[in-house]
Amino acid sequence: MRTRSVLVATALLTTLLHTADGAAAASGHPSVDGQASYDGQAGHDLALYGIKGSGSTGRAGAQEFTTDDDRLSRVALFLSSAAATGKLTVQVRTARDDAGSAVAAATVDLARLGGPGAGWVEVPLTAGLRPGARYYLFAQATTSEDRAVTWHGTRAAAAGSRPGAQYDQDRGGWQAGTGRLAFFVNPAGSERCGETEACYVPASMKPARTAGLLSNGRTVEAVDPPFAVGARYVEGSNVLVLPSGRWRYLPEGAAASRVVEAEDPGAVAQIAESRRWLARGLVPGAAGVRRESAERALLSMRALLRPNGALAAAWYPFWDFSWPRDSAFAAAAFAHTGHDEEAYRILRYNARTQRPDGTWEARTKLDGSGPPDTRQWQLDANGWVPWATWQWYQTAPRADRAERLRALYPAIVKAADYAASSLDGEGLPPASPDYWELPTTTVNIGTAAPLLSGLRAAADLASGLGQEGDAARWTLAAGRLEAGIARRFAPLGYQRTVDGLHGHDSAAAFMAPPFNAAPADLPRALDDTYRALLRPNGGLVPGSDPDTRWGNITWTASTSFFALAWSGTGEREKGAAVLDWVLAQRNVLGELPETVDAQGLPKAVVPLGWTDALVLLALVQQEGTPLPTPPAPRT
Q1: Is the peptide bond before 514 cis (omega within 30 degrees of 0)?
Q2: Backbone phi, then psi, for 556, in 5-degree steps?
């Protein structure tokens, strides 16, 4: 996305955009009398004139213009507002000082702009115009808040440009200015917001780093949050409809997105291909929000999946790496929605990037060349990768699934053998960072529970290939681990660590299906954990460790664990309520964020592939098709 550092963008009205870097680019056209018209300029590097007032009190702004158009359809102004409520009055006058000379007028509700923010605001106005005649674009904001509303512009001169003016009651009325206000009359083409500049952007958009994804199958481009305002995806695609009605997409073979006219043949072809891909699988969820969310999650996961099988956690620096954990969930979600090729591609990548000792780096570069830094490796991958492989195997076409599994089996052997050999005399693995990506001094449930699931999955896969020796070895290890968890974690309600010093952990949900058969005491532990982690915005933090201050920023993945666990343990209504909360956190493009701030606004990266995968798996369960769980050994 061609982004700029200026924070601008989002009106629910349509809006407009313009040239770069605040240059005073004037929009001049020959008028009928031979004089150059002046009907817009894009420069907005200065907060030029305050326009808060009411009628003949306070302040207002006006910009002289002429145009060769004979009809008025819309105007645009670059504004900033510190006020959340109030209204903006916009008029086109024939006399600057005379409200009765207005040939067109409209009001804009500041609250509908999304509250405090800045950017281009486009206002529909309809009137006949006399080409070449002098007009004034007038704007005044009224609000009960003691906060400024400002019309931006520039002091840089351009050929044919005309100065703006400010009405200031305290200074005696209209004051001729030296600056030129940022405005457009009848903006068209690239002058419309969302193309080269953004529409009015509420400050509430600031916490999120990204807002969506454009993709052509090989190249990915994140949608910058300001450019998501007023935009929407064409259904079943990663093509954006802009506020202007034109489309933005990433053409085949292109390295950057382009803005094209609606129904552009290349974009139409890409839309058709995306819809065919969706139709080849399952889009879970009833019509409405659930189905729309599932469709968007599938398309976002597909965009994050690289041709080599790496899966970016999100498309933003420091998130654009492949985590075995995140990709394992994506493989399972692809498998259970009928996208076998994508699931298997991920599993092949994880097999290729396994370390010689059978473990995995915490994350790898997307080209598979190794880790991006020295972050400590994480043992839970030795459970997640076999579990995901087992989930894929349950859905894979039977004709060749055994042969394809054999290609993955050496990685399963190394992973399961390492997990089994890591168990101590109590049957527990060593302390290791888990999905928190923070070390613990004693073993944590976020490692133990995935390893239990992975050992059971590996044993069942081994049996399916006739490798009974492997199956017996891993079944024995799983039994020891299960007993260790029952002795040390269960009495604490499956809290984070066996020393009982680190509180509750949302990973308690990993003891439930589709990971593990739920122990008899798990329902109460899940209820207690959920209550301990619940925050006022309705979501969950990962844990209640007093040494880790999660605050009131909630995590959609941790919250989704409970949607999946309760949906798989017979408490469908509780799972549905949690799932619906997660879906309600979608952003303006319908994408799922990584986190949600205390005000209920998307934060960090949007979308997050792990949350997409969890939501898809929960939707499959909610549809009444229980996800399989690796079987416990038969006694």
Answers
A1: yes
A2: -70, -30
Which tens digit of pLDDT belongs to each residue from 264-293?
999 999 999 999 999 999 999 988 999 999
Ranges of the chain whose pLDDT falls below 70: 1-35, 634-635
Please give the structure tokens belonging to residue 618. 């929960």
Question: Which one-letter DSSP state was computed for residue 534?
Answer: B
pLDDT for 37: 86
DSSP code at position 507: G
* pLDDT for the residue numbered 206: 81
Nearest to 69 by CA among 125, 121, 150: 125
Parallel, antiparallel or unpaired: strands 102-109 and 87-93: antiparallel
d(CA 588, CA 186): 26
Instruction: Tell me the residue type at 194.
Output: G
pLDDT of residue 189: 84
Distance CA 137, CA 149 (A): 16
DSSP three-state, residue 142: strand
Q: Name the E strands within 67-161.
A: 71-81, 87-93, 102-109, 117-128, 135-142, 149-154
Per-residue burial over 188-220, b = 16 or more CB atoms within 10 Å of its CB, e = otherwise: eeebbbbbbbbbbbbbbbebbbbbbbbbbbebb
Q: What angle do CA 213, 215, 220 make, to 5 degrees?
A: 75
List 305's β-bridge partners, or say none: 311
Q: How far is 203 from 264, CA to CA, in rounded Å?
A: 33
Reduce the secondary structure of 411-453 to three states and give it as a string.
HHHHHHHHHHHCCCCCCCCCCCCCCCCCCCCCCEHHHHHHHHH
Element (H, E) at 60: strand 57-65
Return phi, psi of residue 202, to 5°: -65, 150
- Sign of the alpha-carbon dihedral angle for 586, 603, 144, 74: negative
Kindly report the pTM of this predicted structure.
0.91
> Given this model, what pLDDT does residue 35 score?
56
Report pLDDT for 477. 98
For residues 51 and 139, the answer to whether their CB atoms sit within 8 Å is yes
Residue with tokens 């058969």: 517
Q: What is the DSSP string of 551-604?
A: TT-EEHHHHHHHHHHHHHTT-HHHHHHHHHHHHTT--TTSPPPSEE-TTS-EEB
- Nearest 10 degrees: CA dihedral of 557, 560, 566, 569? -60
- Half-sphere exposure at residue 595, Cβ-oriented, CA atoms within 13 angstroms: 16
**Torsion over CA: 526, 529, 531, 536 (sign):** negative
- Please choose, from the candidates 235, 458, 239, 220, the residue with its C-alpha nearest in 3D space to the C-alpha of residue 316: 220
Bridge partners of 164, per DSSP, are 63
